[in-house]
Amino acid sequence: MLRTIIVDDDPIIIRRLKKLLEQSNEVVVVNEFQTGHEYINSINKETHDFAVLDIDLPDLNGIELAKKIHESKPDFPIIFLTGHVDYALESYEVEATDYLLKPIDPSRIHIALEKVKKRLDGTDTVLNRIESMLLSPGKIAIKVEANLLFLEMDQIICIKKDGKMTTILTIESHQNKAKENFYATRDSMKDIHQRLDQNLFIRTHNSYIVNIKWIHEVIPFTSDTYKLKFKHTDEYALLNRTKLSDLIQQVK
Question: What is the CATH number of the domain that holds 197?
């Protein structure tokens, strides 16, 4: 499922577009903004695969907004909304993935989404080449939105299945203090687990992968699960009773 954000100053257009996108059964709209500055201020707080931007925004021209996005995310897919064909042609100057003319033609939604998926697939190919060149022992590469993030395995506390996404919790040193960080990725639990150090990590539950070195306490929770508490965080994971012997064996 693709995740997107819509930026348009017309609430009616937002509602119409959101309905069309979600009717495709391929997209979920995770947030909506009416100004470009609102979107810029929250761009790193919302995990999303592409953005739909109105070109004629009240505070920031959509073309300029796209340029700002591509300064830090050069391959990030953008679909423009516009009521003017001239603007649509101008959108290609910032390597827009596609554009939708107002009023929105429902038949164009599928075409635009196919272009987004091709753009994302192309980005993955480039990132795979980068990963093979830069990945070093003790690290794992995770795709976060359009970016490739290299994480130290030792710093990963646990990995949790979160709906369609996977959330990775790390404890990283910042100014001599331990700091929690959460990273959301579309990488599957199975794929991540296969790339981790099997001596450090164990799949304790359908929804959790745990780094055994960070386990602080094992607490009975329900009739068939335990709760795993970790050092330096209030977050926890679950352990199936059937996995208890595996955990004990791995800790030895």
Answer: 2.40.50.1020
What is the per-residue pLDDT for 92?
Answer: 55
Please give the Cα distance from 71 to 105 (Å, whole number): 31
Q: Hunting for tokens 């947030």 — which residue is that? A: 31
Domain boundary among 106, 127, 148: 127
Question: What burial letters (b/e) apply to 94-104, b meaning 16+ CB within 10 Å?
Answer: bebbbbbebeb
Helix (H) or strand (E) holding 211: strand 208-211
Strand pairing partners for 143? 148
DSSP state, residue 153:
G
Counting the structural domains of the chain, the total is 2
User: What range defines the domain where residue 119 resides?
Assistant: 2-127
In this structure, are 123 and 6 located in the same domain?
yes
Q: How far apart are CA 82 and CA 85, in angstroms?
A: 7
The pairing of beta strand 225-230 with beta strand 236-240: antiparallel
CA distances from 12 to 8, 37, 135 (A): 9, 20, 46
What is the rounded distance in angstroms from the CA atom of residue 54 to the CA atom of residue 78?
10
Check whether residue 165 and residue 212 sit in a common domain. yes
pLDDT in tens, 160-217: 999 889 999 999 887 778 889 999 998 889 999 999 999 999 999 999 999 999 999 9
Is the same domain home to 198 and 98?
Answer: no
